[in-house]
Amino acid sequence: MARENPLVIGGVIGDVLNPFTSSVSLTVSINNRAISNGLELRPSQVVNRPRVTVGGEDLRTFYTLVMVDADAPSPSNPVLREYLHWMVTDIPATTNASFGREVVFYESPNPSVGIHRIVFVLFQQLGRDTVITPEWRHNFNSRNFAEINNLAPVAAAYANCQRERGCGGRRY
Amino acid sequence: MKQVVGMVVSNKMQKSVVVAVDRLFYHKVYDRYVKRTSKFMAHDENNLCNIGDKVRLDPSRPLSKHKHWVVAEILKKAQIYVPPSTPVSVNVNSSSVAPAS
């Protein structure tokens, strides 16, 4: 049932991506701990770039990893949606993100208002060096980016991140 | 997580309601069914819910510290009692001025 999909419940499918079928395993580890969809994070935990492991079968298949904030600058008024925090292209299958080419350097999320969704999306490329680097971090659009570069989403994961001293707080 | 149906018990907040959801479970010690109530905070974007409304909730991402449900549909509006308006009696002699003593 589509409703049971955590990406649907979390609003990732709809706000960030169109419905897709996951075909490759994507493991995102923060401090040697694999994140599950909806995990609560604090900015201090994501100061350093996460370790991302990509599944697949053939080393000749390349993937692009995108990390975006779907609720920038605040969930009630996300005028900067999506904010691009990190982008790595040309990741060979069965390896991790360190084998790819970091085209947008990692910027750690630091939400000030509300609970933000930090979304990791893995796209399959048509070939090597086929991805055009975006000019801006803010108002990045995953759908348009995938369409322009002929990318297909194959996996996604998300975590919730809120300010360090906050405990949920108000959304508005 | 699945959709749940419950009754609105509070709508004092802006864009938020508290919904009471009843469930029955079989108690094997007492050999009977027991009712338990859970209260969930839910997001009501347009402030449409009133106390007593029967609503269906959908799970969502955390919207605030305690709120991770959204009001999907109002199944039944509450019957709000409106007292009948009493006719206002107009005193005809009110215009007459009392004689000065």
Automatic annotation (TrEMBL), chain A:
<dbReference type="Pfam" id="PF01161">
    <property type="entry name" value="PBP"/>
</dbReference>
<dbReference type="InterPro" id="IPR008914">
    <property type="entry name" value="PEBP"/>
</dbReference>
<comment type="similarity">
    <text>Belongs to the phosphatidylethanolamine-binding protein family.</text>
</comment>
<dbReference type="InterPro" id="IPR035810">
    <property type="entry name" value="PEBP_euk"/>
</dbReference>
<dbReference type="InterPro" id="IPR036610">
    <property type="entry name" value="PEBP-like_sf"/>
</dbReference>
<protein>
    <submittedName>
        <fullName>Protein FLOWERING LOCUS T</fullName>
    </submittedName>
</protein>
UniProtKB/TrEMBL annotation, chain B:
<protein>
    <recommendedName>
        <fullName>Small ribosomal subunit protein uS17c</fullName>
    </recommendedName>
</protein>
<keyword id="KW-0699">rRNA-binding</keyword>
<dbReference type="GO" id="GO:0005840">
    <property type="term" value="C:ribosome"/>
</dbReference>
<dbReference type="InterPro" id="IPR012340">
    <property type="entry name" value="NA-bd_OB-fold"/>
</dbReference>
<dbReference type="GO" id="GO:1990904">
    <property type="term" value="C:ribonucleoprotein complex"/>
</dbReference>
<comment type="similarity">
    <text>Belongs to the universal ribosomal protein uS17 family.</text>
</comment>
<keyword id="KW-0689">Ribosomal protein</keyword>
<dbReference type="GO" id="GO:0003735">
    <property type="term" value="F:structural constituent of ribosome"/>
</dbReference>
<keyword id="KW-0694">RNA-binding</keyword>
<dbReference type="InterPro" id="IPR000266">
    <property type="entry name" value="Ribosomal_uS17"/>
</dbReference>
<dbReference type="GO" id="GO:0019843">
    <property type="term" value="F:rRNA binding"/>
</dbReference>
<comment type="function">
    <text>One of the primary rRNA binding proteins, it binds specifically to the 5'-end of 16S ribosomal RNA.</text>
</comment>
<dbReference type="InterPro" id="IPR019984">
    <property type="entry name" value="Ribosomal_uS17_bact/chlr"/>
</dbReference>
<keyword id="KW-0687">Ribonucleoprotein</keyword>
<dbReference type="Pfam" id="PF00366">
    <property type="entry name" value="Ribosomal_S17"/>
</dbReference>
<dbReference type="GO" id="GO:0006412">
    <property type="term" value="P:translation"/>
</dbReference>
